Amino acid sequence: MLMQQASTEMVSAVAPIIERWKHEEGPLLPILNGILREFGYVPREVLPAIAEALNLTRAEVYGVVSFYHDYRQNPPGRHVLKLCRAEACQATGGEAVAEKLQKLLGVRFGETAADGSVTLEPVYCLGLCACAPSAMLDGELIGRLDEERAEEIAREVRA
């Protein structure tokens, strides 16, 4: 019963966002972006309401949400650390930095720390190939990432 109540409340909370965009051309992405801005993630329980409002199947809506990596389906940590996993970063020591960060943060890619402090996400290019390896912490780009800087980041997100 409590879970159903939470789902109903969440659907009610996103209703104005759906209503705002549903009559526009190509409304799905603006709706998802609005929900992401409002809540920091796209809760799975709102997907049927979006599908119904747009006359889409739940599978179509889920396909879009699962395709784009920025549409998280769970609440993120207080900090979001995106670590580039593309070739340039791998070629310049990115794997060692990734292993170090996972160990220091106690999370693997795609996970949020148990204390909610940080979510670690893989990305496949941040456009900083000349400054590889790179990362993005809470929207701020970090180039020339090394193990020392990884330790600083870990201390920063745990503070």
TrEMBL record:
InterPro entries from the entry? NADP_DH_HndA-like, NuoE-like, NuoE_N, Thioredoxin-like_sf
Instruction: Look up the record and name the cofactor or cofactors this protein needs.
Output: [2Fe-2S] cluster
Q: Which PROSITE patterns match?
A: COMPLEX1_24K
- Keyword Methyltransferase assigned to the entry: answer is no
**Keyword set for this entry?**
2Fe-2S, Iron, Iron-sulfur, Metal-binding
Query: Which superkingdom heads the taxonomic lineage of this protein's source?
Result: Bacteria
> What does the similarity note say?
Belongs to the complex I 24 kDa subunit family.
Protein known as = Formate dehydrogenase subunit gamma
The organism that produces this protein has a lineage beginning with: Bacteria, Pseudomonadati, Pseudomonadota, Alphaproteobacteria, Hyphomicrobiales
